[in-house]
Hints:
Blueprint: E1 2-7, H1 13-22, E2 25-31, E3 35-36, E4 41-45, H2 57-63, E5 71-75, H3 78-91, E6 95-97, E7 99-103, E8 106-111, E9 116-121, E10 126-130, E11 140-141, E12 143-144, E13 174-178, H4 188-198, E14 201-204, H5 206-211, E15 232-236, H6 242-248, E16 253-258, H7 265-268, E17 271-274, H8 277-288
Amino acid sequence: xxxxxxxxxxxxxxxxxxxxxxxxxxxxxxxxxxxxxxxxxxxxxxxxxxxxxxxxxxxxxxxxxxxxxxxxxxxxxxxxxxxxxxxxxxxxxxxxxxxxxxxxxxxxxxxxxxxxxxxxxxxxxxxxxxxxxxxxxxxxxxxxxxxxxxxxxxxxxxxxxxxxxxxxxxxxxxxxxxxxxxxxxxxxxxxxxxxxxxxxxxxxxxxxxxxxxxxxxxxxxxxxxxxxxxxxxxxxxxxxxxxxxxxxxxxxxxxxxxxxxxxxxxxxxxxxxxxxxxxxxxxxxxxxx
Length: 289
């Protein structure tokens, strides 16, 4: 059996970790990449001119010769999701998202925002869309495909960047998450100070991102946001409703800071502090310094 990884960048620590669990040989197919992280085999599909990665879908489908029992791992990014759809159609394979465990061809998947778990077994190749995770050093020169099987006639006409792009929460070991317990956007500086003291990433609940726009949408944790698995998750001013906890419940240790002793977050927390965050956070930062 073979585990295939299709990517447009070296941010594939997540898929590589899943490939390690599967225990089969690994082939990485890089789109527009000359070198790739080390694997049993690495292939590259060149992108001439201003072609976007999505234009390589026919070549990717030709390169990934997945057989029954194989898994195709795709980082959860815009271009790769388009490639995942093309591969699934060509292979007549299911696309699985929210995968939390794999073993012997059995995939355990979060459903309904983590409220339920489903076990899926397939006699076809499976296409898994996973968090990309951190960068992995490119150590191996990629083997170019001699004759890529055609490219779509597409080109990049303009590029924009989001200066406030969200952090890579999927691979974060420590996270400080903020909720609407903060009275003003400027007050998030208290949480940023705590995150800096803990060497943690800053995240938020959905209302902070989509309600008041204090943080990028990519930074919110919850049913329709990111699912995270840090060693430490500090929830500050977050009530702990199901919609949020579905994205944070896999954290190894949860610490809650809330001034409402009846807040649902305390039912999920390993440690809880009932108190005013405007007093608690500076005290925590002082204790950590």
